[in-house]
Amino acid sequence: MTQQRPTSFLRRTPLRGAIVRYLNRNLPSDQQIQPRLLWPLYLCPWLLLVHLLNPSPIWILLVVTLLGVYAAAYFWVRRQAGTIRLERRRRGTMLVAGDSLQEEFVLHNEGVLPLLWLEFDDDSYLPGYNPSQVVGCGANQKYTWRAEATCEQRGVFRLGPHRLSSGDPFGLFRVEVQGRHSEALLVYPRVAQLPPMELPRGALIGRDRRRRPLAGDDRSPVVRGYRPGDSLRHIHWPSTAHRGDLMVSEVEAEPSGDLWVVLDLNAAAHRGSGVKSTLEYGIVLAASLTAELLSGGDRRAVGLLAAGSGPSGPLSVTVPPLPGKGHLWQILAALAPAQTGDTPLDALLRQNRDLLGRGQTVVVITPDLTTSAAAWMAELLHLRRAGVVGSALLVTPAEERDESAQQALWELLVRHEIPAQFLQAGTPLRTSLTYRRRRTILRSTPTGGVVVQEVEEEVG
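The structure corresponding to this sequence follows.
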């Protein structure tokens, strides 16, 4: 990304600053004329002094010619200052990692003077994308060009702002037009087809409504401590009198079948970098599992739970379970900016115990295969006693593999009857969200001509 030159460089001396302010009088704040070559003007007083000491028409001719050239150059850029306009249009509204970003730029020259050259300098922040160009445009005409880049990474990026720079034929002045508009670009994580896996489905599918008995909620024999928000109708007075603290009876309600995808973003557990890292692979698994469950025949309600970091600091993601394919994009938008943080998986589960209701299902996606895995497994067992069924998708690093640690963890999961499946980061997965599009490409011929071709391709 090109860095803008500091303004102080253009105003190193009081005289230069005064000239710059005079040249830019009555111009909008987003337009500025900057002198590129001023030292020939400093010769004018010396030429006049020489003429006084040794009169000659040559000295007057040099002064008049020099001032005339500068006046013509300044008139040229002054007329261009308010006549340059740029439109940029982005094709497509939703981008998934791996898609192609396409932008179209239309330069309008609404003046009577041609743009001999114009430099378009873009400050977009998108890896691998640089639409900066140097173009020309005739008087009262427009010039169009396109830029394209592949969005290799998911995340939140920025398109714009930009700067337009042009000048006079003599190279004495430079006019800059600052485009202040910028647009946030959200690149969703990729959704892939997962291998067959057995996950707990809960006691009821998500499309069934929660039913309650006609006589009200059934009370279970389980008694627990009072929590803020509990109804006073459920206070178990004998236990309250016996223990001296408010005790309430659990309410028997049919399970909803809702599923929570809990993504581990603890930096201490992740390994690798790039698309083969356990972080990126875990996010792809979370997005793919959500898409599979929301588009399935049983129409389950799926939510997302994670704690990491984002572009502006710590990021806590809590997306309540909802059914329907439209809910997928809400979860993908929450996953797009997610990065690793400092919250361990067991702490994330412990902090959200009250959020996970009885009869729901929790699927943990984590690369934590070390001895600290016992901590989040203990939280899954605690949730099981509260009526929340749990399972795990374990992401192993792409390069380093500890077979003994995996075997020990697998035996521990089997012993506690926690369904689990291992997936190695970097394993190729076929893209699930795909669509076909047509686009125009330009191919050059050996004779120097250009052939326009329409191609159809599958993207996702």
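The CA atoms of residues 115 and 137 lie 5 Å apart.
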